[in-house]
Design brief:
Strands 1, 2, 5, 8, 9 and 10 form a 6-stranded mixed beta sheet that branches. Strands 4-3-6-7 form a 4-stranded antiparallel beta sheet. The radius of gyration is 20 Å and the shape is globular. Helix 2 packs across helix 10 (143-165), helix 6 packs antiparallel against helix 8 (98-115) and helix 8 (98-115) runs parallel beside helix 9 (128-138). The protein has helices at residues 3-7, 11-21, 25-33, 40-54, 57-65, 70-86, 90-95, 98-115, 128-138, 143-165, 242-248, and strands spanning 179-185, 190-191, 196-203, 206-214, 220-221, 234-240, 258-264, 270-277, 280-282, 286-287. It folds into 2 domains: 1-174, Orthogonal Bundle (UraD-like), CATH 1.10.3330.10; 175-287, Immunoglobulin-like (Sandwich). It has 288 residues and is of the alpha+beta class. 45% of the residues lie in helices and 19% in strands. It is built from 11 helices and 10 strands.
Length: 288
C-alpha cells in the first residue's frame, strides 16, 4: 500500500493497520487524528513523538501484552532451523537446536515472571543464540530499566512493520540510531563480535540502562536506539561486557568490563568506537 492510499483509508481501517504495527489503541487513535501525512518522514516523526510523549505506561504495557508469546517465536525458529539445514548451514541449524529452543522458552518465562510483561526484542536478522544472550542478559535489569528498553524495542518493531505495510522509497530519509557503536579486536584487527553493550542514563543520581544490544559480525551496533529517537543533552554511559567476549574467544583479558562516559549535546549523531585487547583498550571521538 502506498502512503497516498493509506491517507485515503476510512479512519477505522487506518487504525486497524496501525494497530497491526503497534498494539496501543491510544497510539493508533492519535496517529489517525494526524492524517493525512505528506511524507513517511512526517508519519514517523509523529509516531515517535506520540509514543514517547503522549502515551503512558498503561499504553506501553498494552502494546507489550499484544506481542506473541515465546512459543510462537519458537515455532518460527524451528522453521528457520529446517531451512538452514536444507541450505547446508549447519552452524545456524545447530544454534536453533531443541536445547536452544528450550532455553529460550525457560528464560522468557523467568523474564515475564520478573517484569510482568513478555520479552520484546527487535529480532529481525538476529540469530536465536543472540536472542537468548540478550534475553538472559536483560534478566539482570530492573523492571523500570526493562520498560525503557522494551519501549525502544517496540518502537523499532513499529518502524519495521510500517515499512512492510507502506511502500515508499522515502523510508531512506528516516534517520538511524542517534548513537552507534563499533568494537575492534586489536590483536587481529578484526571486528569484535558478540559484545553485549548497555547504554545508561543518569537518573536520580544513579545510572539506569535505557538500551541494550550486541555487536554484530561487523563489530557494530547501528540500532541501539529507535530511528529518530534523539536523547536529551547530558552525560551517558556505555558499558561493554568485554569479560564474556574474552571468555567466548578463549582469551585472558585484563578488563572484564569497559565503561565509557560521554556527553551528548545538540542533535548531531554520535559514534563511539572501542578498540579492545587482552591488556588494554582505547576510544576516540568519531563521526556518526
Amino acid at each position: 500500500m502506498k502512503l497516498s492510499e493509506f491517507n485515503s483509508l476510512p479512519p477505522e481501517k487506518a487504525e486497524e493497520l496501525l494497530m497491526d504495527c503497534c498494539g496501543s489503541e491510544k497510539w493508533a487513535a492519535l496517529m489517525v487524528k494526524k492524517l493525512p501525512f505528506s511524507s513517511v518522514r512526517l508519519l514517523w516523526d509523529n509516531a515517535t513523538r506520540i509514543w514517547y510523549e503522549e502515551c503512558s505506561s498503561a499504553d506501553w504495557n498494552e502494546a507489550l501484552r499484544r506481542h506473541p508469546k515465546i512459543g510462537d517465536i519458537l515455532l518460527l525458529t524451528k522453521k528457520l532451523a529446517e531451512a538452514a539445514k536444507q541450505a547446508g548451514k549447519e552452524s545456524e541449524m545447530n544454534e536453533s537446536s531443541e536445547e536452544m529452543l528450550r532455553l529460550l522458552k525457560f528464560a522468557n518465562e523467568e523474564y515475564e515472571k520478573q517484569n510482568g510483561f513478555i520479552f520484546v526484542y527487535s529480532a529481525s536478522g538476529k540469530s536465536s543464540g543472540e536472542i537468548l544472550r540478550q534475553l538472559t542478559g536483560r534478566l539482570f535489569n530492573s523492571r523500570d530499566e526493562e520498560m525503557d528498553i522494551a519501549m525502544g524495542e517496540q518502537h523499532k518493531i513499529t518502524l519495521i512493520r510500517l515499512m512492510r505495510s507502506l511502500e515508499s522509497d522515502q523510508w531512506n530519509s528516516i534517520p538511524g540510531s542517534h548513537i552507534s557503536i563499533s568494537a575492534t579486536n586489536v590483536v587481529d584487527g578484526k571486528p569484535a563480535r558478540g559484545i553485549t553493550v548497555r547504554l545508561k542514563d543518569c537518573w536520580k543520581g544513579s545510572w539506569q540502562t535505557i538500551a541494550q544490544g550486541e555487536t554484530n559480525a561487523g563489530g557494530m551496533i547501528n540500532d541501539l536506539l529507535p530511528p529518530g529517537k534523539i536523547p536529551e543533552d547530558g552525560n551517558y554511559q556505555l558499558v561493554f561486557e568485554t569479560g564474556d567476549y574474552f571468555k567466548d574467544n578463549r582469551m585472558e583479558g585484563l578488563y572484564p568490563q569497559v565503561d565509557i562516559i560521554f556527553t551528548l549535546s545538540g542533535n548531531a549523531k554520535c559514534h563511539i568506537p572501542l578498540n579492545i585487547g587482552p591488556d588494554g583498550f582505547s576510544t576516540q571521538r568519531a563521526s556518526g
